[in-house]
Amino acid sequence: MLNEILGAVALGLMWTLMTYGVYISYRVLDVADLTVEGSITMGAAISAAGIVAGIPPLVTLLFSVLGGMTAGMVTGILHTTLKIPALLSSILTMIALWSVNLHIMGKANVSLLKQPTVFDALLKLHLPKNLAVICIALLFVAGAFLILYWFFGTEIGCAIRATGNNERMARAQGINTDRMKILGLVIGNGFVALAGGLIAQSQSFADIQMGTGSIVIGLASLIIGEVLFGKKTFFNSLISLCLGSITYRVIIMLVLKLGMPANDLKLFTAITVALALALPTIKAKVNAKKTAKGGVTNA
Amino acid sequence: MLKVENARIVFHPGTVNETEALRGISLHLAPGEFVTVIGGNGAGKSTLLNCVSGAYFLTSGKILIDGQDVTNVPEFKRAKYLGRVFQDPMMGTAGNMWIEENLALAFRRGQKRGLKWGITNEEREMFREQLAQFDLGLEGRLSTKVKLLSGGQRQALTLLMATLVKPKLLLLDEHTAALDPKTAKKVLELSEQIIERDHLTTLMVTHNMRDAIKYGNRLIMLHNGEIAVDVSGEEKKNLTVESLIEKFSEASGSDEVSDKLAL
Ligand SMILES: Nc1ncnc2c1ncn2[C@@H]1O[C@H](COP(=O)(O)OP(=O)(O)O)[C@@H](O)[C@H]1O
Ligand SMILES: [Mg+2]
């Protein structure tokens, strides 16, 4: 059991990077960006193909990030310059990435067994696999945390936040909103691809399918994190996303242990997210009924 | 300061919804001129301001701000010349961001944004002082999310944001229409104070004839996308609601809108 919890924490930490990416598009920019389903696989594909080709594992992750950023840029340009609705733009990129990723890997699945990974340094110290992944992933999450916390406090970061919050206002303040949207998608998908690369190295393979449904996992982590751990400040949000991502993995581990078939996992996650997203509406309806009733009794 | 030359704009050309919202408007504003704009619903007041700000591009004609031809300059680039307050109090601010963050965004209007901090301590101090002058109790709430403010507070904040960096032209589009009468009066007076203090060239749309007469040193009335009345100087000072309606009927050849206007 302890090992399974450690496994869930390790996975949750790596997926935190993905959740950060989803947060940037979904919360900061206020667009549902499906590019991530392709860019997480792209990150994995680039890293795996790179390692097999003899590139140092850490360097392959840099290429993963660059790949993800490019994918985000394509979606951004489709949406802003070419005026295709955001959701559709991201679906187009996602679909296109399927072929691109197959080209990168040369096949549907690349194994990294007996290949070097970024976890090797710790594995050599005879640290258990899960602990090694936790330590390395924690370093990446800490780095991502610092970068995001700094970046969204800068002038450009503030401009991106304003763009997502109120586009007209942003333009009235002289902000090039198109450019900010592209930039946000670039950064978000960079993080997502980094997650993909790291995950591939930890599980010792990259698979063309691995991105399918990842947006929903990212959203589930985001919402669980915000609901359970708060979103008062940006600092608070970034911590919550990490905790939410870990909580999600622990929940999944538990329901699987309780005997839910693995095939139902995506259904379970989708229903959870749908409920969480509908929560404000349901709450409002319940409250409206309560006040209506209250009004009658008062009258 | 502002030159609009023969401005025409057609929405949805070639469809059943085709609307010619501006029909060849020419308007010159001297520096420091404070012009109130009235006109019935759909007369083209908002469209005129939106064309000046670059939210819409003209179908034909020209717009110059301080001698610069901005006819084809995108909205975000024109913003450096302009301060704007909209009718909807939600429109002019970023509700999820703090008061100080909104002000810091406005303080950087027209400047290149880089990787420096989005707000500095000196700026905070300055924002605090400026807000204190507004007497709305906002100076102690710099790190409050703007969406928690009342409509009037938001409009006052937007007004401060619009004038924090002195704009070449201030565009106010019925910026008090969504407020209760008392708050509307306060925001209007605040606007006048700032405009006089900084000698701002201003276009202020209002639906209220009395306000249009009371404020500013020139008044124009739009009708069907054209300027129907344009008075300034002594003549403007001596205007009454009645004489204005009369002028309007003369110019437009109808009196149907006069009921709509005389609120
Ligand atoms: N974005 C738009 N698309 C199509 N028609 C528009 C648009 N904006 C304004 N119009 C039309 O232009 C005319 C003038 O509108 P507007 O400038 O908003 O009037 P108002 O004087 O009330 O501010 C109206 O007929 C309106 O329907
Ligand atoms: Mg209007």
Structural description of this entry:
The complex is a heterodimer of chains A (299) and B (263). Chain A is an all-alpha fold and 299 residues long. Chain A has a single domain, classed as ABC transporter involved in vitamin B12 uptake, BtuC, CATH 1.10.3470. Chain A has twelve helices and two strands, in the order H-H-H-H-E-H-H-H-H-H-E-H-H-H. Chain A has helices at 2-28, 35-52, 57-80, 86-105, 120-124, 129-151, 155-165, 167-172, 177-203, 214-229, 234-257, 265-298; strands at residues 109-111, 205-207. Chain A has a two-stranded antiparallel ribbon. The longest helix of chain A has 34 residues, at 265-298. The radius of gyration of chain A is 20 Å and the shape is globular. Chain B is of the alpha/beta class and 263 residues long. Chain B has a single domain (2-262), classed as P-loop containing nucleotide triphosphate hydrolases (Rossmann fold). Chain B has helices at residues 45-53, 75-78, 99-107, 121-134, 151-164, 181-198, 209-214, 233-237, 241-252, 256-261; strands at residues 2-11, 19-29, 34-39, 60-65, 68-69, 82-85, 169-173, 202-205, 218-223, 226-232. In chain B, helix 3 (99-107) runs parallel beside helix 5. Chain B is globular. In chain B, 44% of the residues are buried. The mean pLDDT of chain B is 93. Classes of the chains: A mainly alpha (299), B alpha/beta (263). The complex binds adenosine-5'-diphosphate and magnesium ion. Residues 11-12, 19, 21, 39, 41-47 of chain B line the site of adenosine-5'-diphosphate. Adenosine-5'-diphosphate (ADP) is lined by residues 11-12, 19, 21, 39, 41-47 of chain B.
